[in-house]
Write a structure and sequence with these properties.
The chain has about 230 residues and is α+β, with helices and mostly antiparallel strands. The protein is built from ten helices and six strands. The protein has helices spanning about 5-10, 15-20, 45-50, 50-65, 90-110, 120-125, 150-160, 165-180, 195-205, 210-220; strands at about 35-40, 75-80, 85-90, 115-120, 135-140, 145-150. Residues about 225-230 have low confidence and may be disordered. The strands form two sheets. Strands 2-3-1-4 form a four-stranded antiparallel sheet, with helices on both faces. Strands 5-6 form a two-stranded antiparallel sheet.
Length: about 230
């Protein structure tokens, strides 16, 4: 039995193709862990514009930033070229989202690219009827690769990468309010902080990474500590 925080550290590594092919031996991901997914929005179009190196650097920045949060702990991840999928224990979630949010701003300023950051609780994946099996393959003496099987990863990606259009509109209005833009350019039901908050509550799941930025900004604005909040 593995302890939750050290689940991946304590997971025995597979070293043969025979072991890799035996999916019955793969344990479920811990119920209290999270999938954190980053990717560059419209990366195909950006590659056509010659920004493939910038895209790779953006993904690498996400990876290095999260690993550096706890270099002594083996952080499981899958590198996808334009983004990274992390399997994160609950105690690391807050710091992980914080550093990736900082990366969003840096990537926008440096490369003019939009870095999408989202997370889904593993327990939500299970509650929705999907599977998430985890393995570890010993590639070399010093490196083991995370293996993820099951339809849970596709489900998580769909939640993060394909939000409803109504949710996108509400987030756009919220970002405009945070920048002190002219709200008359938005629908009548999305022109005040209260209206926007009600719409976000209706449309955004609790795991959406936009919530921390919105709540912090609203609290600062309402307390008079913030004049203008600029986000990417």
């Amino acid at each position: 039995m593995y302890s939750s925080r050290c689940f991946y550290e304590e997971l025995p590594a597979l070293s043969s193709f025979k072991e890799l092919a035996n999916f019955q031996t793969y344990p479920d991901a811990p119920n209290d862990w999270y999938l954190v997914i980053t990717d560059v929005v419209s990366s195909t179009k950006a590659i056509e514009q010659g920004k493939y190196k910038d895209i790779n650097l953006t993904a690498a920045l996400s990876l290095v930033s999260v690993i550096n949060l706890n270099p002594d702990l083996n952080c499981p991840f899958i590198f996808g070229g334009d983004g990274v999928t992390f399997l994160i224990s609950e105690d690391m979630l807050g710091d992980t989202l914080s550093v990736l949010t900082d990366n969003r701003r840096l990537v926008k300023e440096t490369f003019d690219l939009s870095l999408r950051v989202g997370y889904v609780a593993v327990k939500e994946i299970y509650q929705s009827g999907y599977q998430l099996k985890i393995g570890k393959y010993q590639v070399s003496a010093t490196y083991a690769q995370l293996l993820i099987f099951g339809n849970g990863i596709d489900y998580a990606e769909s939640l993060i990468k394909n939000p409803p259009q109504e949710a996108e509109t509400a987030i756009d209005a919220a970002q405009a309010w945070m920048r002190n833009d002219d709200m008359n350019n938005y629908p009548e039901q999305l022109r005040t902080q209260v209206q926007i908050h009600q719409e976000l509550q209706k449309l955004l799941p609790g795991h959406d990474p936009f919530w921390p930025r919105w709540i912090v900004t609203v609290e600062k604005r309402n307390s008079g500590l913030l004049e203008v909040w600029s986000i990417c």
